[in-house]
Design goal:
There is one protein chain. The protein is an alpha+beta fold and 150 residues long. The chain has six helices and three strands, in the order ααββααβαα. It has a three-stranded mixed sheet. The model is unreliable at 1-29 (pLDDT under 50).
């Protein structure tokens, strides 16, 4: 589950996106030196897709990983570059943009890739299901975390 956002903050975000054209809406995104993987994901997706809207959520805290881990992410990318592309192709493009992270430090990536028109009719981010503990027995995750890559 994503961290709870106060109803008023959700309302403001929805109102802002509805009140202004998406091309003018850029969420405030200061890079956090304590979150290098999240910063890299944000930078690569911004550079690749020039998104109208981008959300990068570190969901590692919802999984069986040490505090401060950066191994599980959910992204929402709204870009006109997705127009006319099937969902699977959009996901492949996002995976390609993040192939280095997916092959090293990122264990799980949930993707929502929308066109500005789709985002305009449904400006929501899907919720992640509760962790079922699947990564607890995954040796590759344990090895990456021990090596400081997760």
């Amino acid at each position: 589950m994503l961290p709870r956002v106060p109803r008023s903050a959700r309302h403001v975000a929805v109102c802002l996106s509805a009140a202004r054209p998406l091309a003018h809406f850029r969420p405030h995104m200061d890079p956090d030196p304590n979150r290098p993987v999240e910063t890299t994901i944000r930078t690569k997706l911004t550079d690749t897709f020039k998104p109208d809207h981008l959300e990068v959520h570190n969901e590692s805290h919802m999984h069986a990983v040490p505090p401060g881990s950066e191994s599980h992410f959910r992204v929402l990318v709204v870009s006109s570059q997705f127009a006319g592309l099937p969902l699977i192709q959009r996901h492949r493009l996002v995976n390609e943009a993040l192939k280095e992270e997916l092959s090293s430090c990122v264990h799980a990536l949930a993707i929502q890739a929308k066109t500005p028109e789709q985002w305009g009719t449904d400006p929501t981010l899907a919720k992640s299901p509760a962790c079922m503990g699947g990564s607890k027995g995954d040796q590759s995750v344990e090895e990456k975390l021990k090596a400081g890559r997760g």
